[in-house]
Design goal:
Elements (H helix, E strand, L loop, with lengths): L5 H4 E7 L2 E6 L1 E2 L5 H6 L2 E7 L7 E9 L7 E2 L7 E6 L6 E9 L5 E9 L3 E3 L3
Parallel strand pairs: 2-10
Antiparallel strand pairs: 1-2, 3-4, 4-7, 5-6, 5-8, 8-9
């Protein structure tokens, strides 16, 4: 992702029961876009699956954010995201999925994933 192998960023990352666990490596390769754009640190890479085919929007990001608001995922062909984790105990991964119902109403499903179970390696 962004010129970086996922294995350079993390190991054993799983998503279950509203939580994300695993180990985030400290990444500081200054030749790579992630570090050039966001600085060295711990990055979480996520492949988003199970997106409702009727979704009109899927916004993803961290809450609270450390510099980036939610971004649209629906038109992203690979449905991948990389997020710099600055405080695993307060940040959550947020996914907001919007769909149009048969009656024309918009339905919004918001999911927050707990990150406190992540292990973040230091420099």
């Amino acid at each position: 992702m962004f010129g970086t192998q996922v294995s350079d960023l993390q190991t054993g990352v799983t998503v279950a029961n509203g939580a994300i666990t695993g180990t985030l490596k400290y990444y500081n390769d200054t030749s790579k876009a992630l570090v050039k754009d966001w600085g060295a640190g711990n990055f979480l890479a996520v492949k988003f699956t199970n997106i409702d085919a009727d979704s009109t929007s899927v916004m993803v990001g961290l809450e609270p954010s450390a510099g980036s608001e939610l971004v649209e995922l629906i038109d992203d062909p690979d449905k991948n995201g990389v997020f710099k984790i600055t405080d695993k105990n307060t940040q959550k991964l947020k996914v907001v999925q919007s769909t149009k119902g048969a009656d024309g109403s918009t339905y919004i499903n918001t999911q927050l994933y707990d990150l406190s179970g992540l292990t973040c390696n230091n420099a």
